[in-house]
């Protein structure tokens, strides 16, 4: 692979997969004691 | 012990058991066929590596903000798309039914593609398409009639049987309900889909020529960024990929607990969807690089998207690649899993709306909604005219259905109802991402303006020539006619009164003062 392609692939991975990791950490921290309630479903 | 209003509502409408199930279901809806067969080609055609810049800007300035809007509508108003709009302001209920109609149309043809993928998964084992996958697809497999023959009722058993199987599976899932059907499907299918696709990518990366494919996909063409069409492509890709603007996210967000962090959840869904698209790009272009090298041509000569990629290019790759059968099974299994979770979400929009409006039981609403859709689907898409009808319906309902209703509903919410400040306050009550003036500006100006520009361009292009060279009457009926019919039907259903047990006020939530705003 050429250098610009490698750089852009790494940037895309870092931004999108890194962004996903950060988003998961964020949502885990914001858990406000929501319990896994079992709702009855009609 | 007396049930709380939330428990009563959950028991009546159904609900996801936790935020995790909701997030997986939303990812299952967003991750669909378009991620696998649309994104890689769109990125390649629009600047390669440079496309990541407009794509990311589109995700952050249009995709995720629009996702927040859908979440705010459904989560605050606790209803399907029509009920959520009716609770925002009675006169806007038709927007919800318009979205429901669009979903019903998409479900009709979406199932057909899943059925084809099912057949092709088995074809992969012995490369049943032989030496000419293109001829096999249109000929032996679909027995596609010439478009000039119009709509035929010459049934093709090879596509009829898998389509029936798809509908039996999907109807069973829908009848099981929100948690045990929709939620459980995503909880199981999404991790399996991820594993299958990662295995596919690893296998594709090991193919000779894979790096040439990645070079083609990621080498940046910075001059492309001066082209407004590239930016429109980025916004279009994000918009169509995220399942926003046509009722799905409104419906799903009405099934989660009131204290759920909707903005944080939205960020996970948005990045998961785009992250999966990147994975698809790597897998698909590695395989295309192999095909180009094996054929002694440039990657650009073999690159394609959509049905051509899945049912013509990939079979050619499978025929030539080492362990091609495994690649084929993984690829088509991924299409099936991604397609099923999306189809389930599309149908849930319709079933949820019918349940809310007519106060029907889950099984009753599933029967009333899914059976007629399945019958029309089988009648139209298991015959020799399936490909023509599918192409027309898909093109028109996406552009003049989804895109149009998204622009209209955003303008109505932002400018006619001026509801964004109340919706922002609702999101901020439990959201981990503060939603402020920037969100209001994006939703009221930037996103509708960009989508409107794309819409105008599509309208101009479509009006300039008969779509696909198909007969005028077919384009008029299955294209313009269907796109117009969902609006008319939407308005007509609005005339039916809501049942007494479904108040059009926002359900009581003593912690949410925004519940008293807007609808007055």
From TrEMBL, chain B:
Which residue stretches, if any, does this entry annotate as coiled coil?
none
Q: Which residues form the signal peptide?
A: none
Where does the record say this protein resides?
A: Membrane
The GO cellular component terms are: membrane
Give the bilayer topology: Multi-pass membrane protein
Domain of life here? Bacteria
Span-the-membrane segments of this chain are 21-40, 52-73, 94-116, 155-176, 188-210, 230-255, 267-290, 302-319, 326-347, 367-390, 397-417, 437-456, 477-498
Q: Which family does it belong to?
A: Belongs to the sodium:neurotransmitter symporter (SNF) (TC 2.A.22) family.
Q: What protein name applies here?
A: Transporter
Task: Give the source species.
Answer: Intrasporangium chromatireducens Q5-1
Classification of source organism:
Bacteria, Bacillati, Actinomycetota, Actinomycetes, Micrococcales
């Amino acid at each position: 692979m050429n250098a610009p392609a490698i750089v852009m692939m790494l940037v895309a991975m870092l931004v999108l997969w890194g962004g996903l990791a950060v988003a998961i950490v964020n949502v885990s921290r914001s858990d406000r004691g929501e319990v896994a309630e079992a709702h009855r479903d009609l | 012990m007396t049930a709380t209003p939330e428990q009563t509502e959950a028991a009546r409408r159904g609900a996801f058991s936790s935020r995790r199930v909701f997030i997986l279901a939303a990812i299952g809806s967003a991750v669909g066929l378009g991620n696998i067969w649309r994104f890689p080609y769109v990125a390649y055609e629009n600047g390669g590596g440079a496309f990541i810049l407009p794509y990311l800007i589109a995700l952050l300035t249009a995709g995720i903000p629009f996702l927040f809007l859908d979440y705010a509508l459904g989560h605050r108003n606790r209803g399907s798309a029509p009920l959520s709009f009716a609770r925002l302001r009675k006169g806007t209920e038709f927007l919800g039914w318009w979205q429901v109609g669009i979903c019903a149309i998409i479900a009709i043809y979406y199932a057909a593609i899943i059925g084809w993928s099912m057949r092709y998964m088995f074809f992969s084992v012995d490369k049943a398409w032989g030496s000419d996958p293109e001829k096999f697809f249109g000929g032996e497999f679909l027995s596609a009639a010439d478009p000039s023959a119009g709509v035929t009722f010459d049934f093709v058993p090879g596509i009829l049987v898998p389509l029936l199987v798809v509908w039996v599976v999907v109807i069973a899932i829908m009848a099981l309900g929100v948690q045990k059907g929709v939620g459980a499907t995503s909880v199981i299918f999404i991790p399996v889909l991820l594993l299958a696709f990662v295995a596919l990518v690893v296998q594709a990366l090991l193919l000779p020529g894979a790096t040439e494919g990645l070079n083609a996909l990621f080498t940046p063409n910075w001059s492309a960024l001066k082209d407004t069409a590239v930016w429109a492509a980025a916004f279009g890709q994000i918009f169509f990929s995220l399942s926003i603007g046509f009722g799905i996210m409104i419906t799903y967000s009405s099934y989660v607990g009131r204290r759920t962090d909707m903005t944080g959840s939205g960020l996970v869904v948005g990045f998961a969807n785009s992250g999966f698209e990147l994975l698809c790009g790597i897998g698909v272009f590695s395989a295309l690089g192999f095909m180009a090298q094996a054929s002694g041509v440039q990657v650009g000569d073999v690159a394609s998207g959509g049905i051509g990629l899945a049912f013509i290019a990939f079979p050619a790759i499978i025929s030539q690649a080492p362990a091609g059968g495994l690649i084929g099974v993984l690829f088509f299994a991924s299409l099936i899993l991604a397609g099923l979770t999306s189809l389930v979400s599309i149908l849930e929009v319709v079933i949820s709306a019918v349940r809310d409006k007519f106060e029907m039981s889950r099984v009753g609403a599933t029967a009333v909604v899914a059976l007629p859709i399945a019958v029309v689907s089988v009648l139209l898409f298991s015959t020799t005219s399936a490909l023509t009808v599918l192409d027309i319906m898909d093109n028109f309902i996406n552009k003049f259905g989804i895109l149009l209703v998204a622009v209209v509903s955003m303008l109505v919410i932002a400018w006619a109802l001026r509801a964004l400040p109340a919706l922002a306050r609702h999101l901020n009550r439990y959201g981990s991402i503060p939603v402020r003036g920037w969100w209001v500006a994006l939703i009221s100006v930037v996103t509708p303006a960009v989508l409107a520009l794309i819409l105008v361009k599509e309208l101009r292009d479509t009006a300039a020539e008969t779509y696909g060279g198909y007969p005028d009457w077919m384009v008029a009926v299955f294209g313009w006619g269907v796109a117009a019919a969902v609006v008319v039907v939407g308005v007509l259903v609005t005339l039916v009164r809501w049942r007494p047990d479904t108040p059009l006020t926002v359900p009581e939530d003593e912690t949410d003062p925004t519940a008293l705003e807007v609808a007055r």
